[in-house]
Design goal:
The chain has helices at 18-29, 41-50, 67-79, 102-129, 150-169, 201-205, 216-227; strands spanning 9-13, 33-38, 55-59, 84-87, 133-137, 176-182, 238-241. It has 248 residues and is an alpha/beta fold. It has a single domain (9-241), classed as NAD(P)-binding Rossmann-like Domain (Rossmann fold), CATH 3.40.50.720. A seven-stranded parallel β-sheet has the order 3-2-1-4-5-6-7, with helices on both faces. The protein binds nicotinamide-adenine-dinucleotide. Nicotinamide-adenine-dinucleotide binds at residues 13-14, 16-20, 38-40, 43, 61-63, 88-91, 111, 137, 139, 182-185, 187-189.
Amino acid sequence: MPGRFDGRVALVTGAGAGIGRAIALRLADGGATVFGVDVDHEGLVETSKAASGMLITYRADLAEADACPAAVSACISRLGRLDVLGNVAGIYAAAHTPEMSRERYRRLMAVNLDAYFYLAQAAIPHLLEHGGNIVNIASNAGIQGIPYSAAYCMSKGGVIQLTRSLAVEYLKSPLRVNAIAPAGTNTDIAANAGFPADMDADLAGRMGGLRGLAEPEEVAALFAFLASDEARSVTGAVYTIDNGLTAS
Ligand SMILES: NC(=O)c1ccc[n+]([C@@H]2O[C@H](COP(=O)([O-])OP(=O)(O)OC[C@H]3O[C@@H](n4cnc5c(N)ncnc54)[C@H](O)[C@@H]3O)[C@@H](O)[C@H]2O)c1
């Protein structure tokens, strides 16, 4: 049976773990050739081993601005085209706001927001050649405030506005740009977030939902829909997948 993404090339960042890995595997399973980008070489090897379809890995630290257009160029020179850009790589850094160092703040913004912009800039000319699309991973943190997470929330709010702005800028072209805003998803992202040991229990209690965590594969399924031709009329959208968290 032909795959949904046969003949298409997808560049997926954060492909070395969690949601990015699930997306890379899902697209490869659907017939795409996936160019999986991550800073974590070991993680990329694991993703590669798990892939049933065509998956090429590329190590890059996307916090370095020049690494973003370089990753797109490497994808084009290796595979000749680009149909889907999945901006997925992200980090969490929590702190009492006065205690957030500039270094942590700058790295968070570089990975979560600057890289999304630089990758989109480099990818758009190639995406326009084949009526491609961009799917950005935002977060419930881009929609609601989260304690000890001002910088993370700023970065994800920026991802939502990047999505809407690019969608509108390219309304007269076939290019589509959408975002997914997951909430708690079963990955390791929070492991090194550094939530303060003395955080207020009442405030911390407001962070979670009542229905538990989503699995990365659920986010990947939504991503695959948005990246496919079935979503040809969907652009500028921000789809939550958050167990009702931002509805309340
Ligand atoms: N897990 C959640 O609860 C959740 C909720 C909402 C949004 N998100 C978002 O989903 C996306 C994926 O997160 P995840 O939960 O899969 O986390 P994860 O930690 O499992 O995976 C993130 C991946 O990004 C990579 N990465 C980090 N910094 C990088 C850099 N400088 N250059 C290249 N790659 C880098 C990591 O190596 C890792 O493989 C992120 O944008 C995150 O903000 C996650």
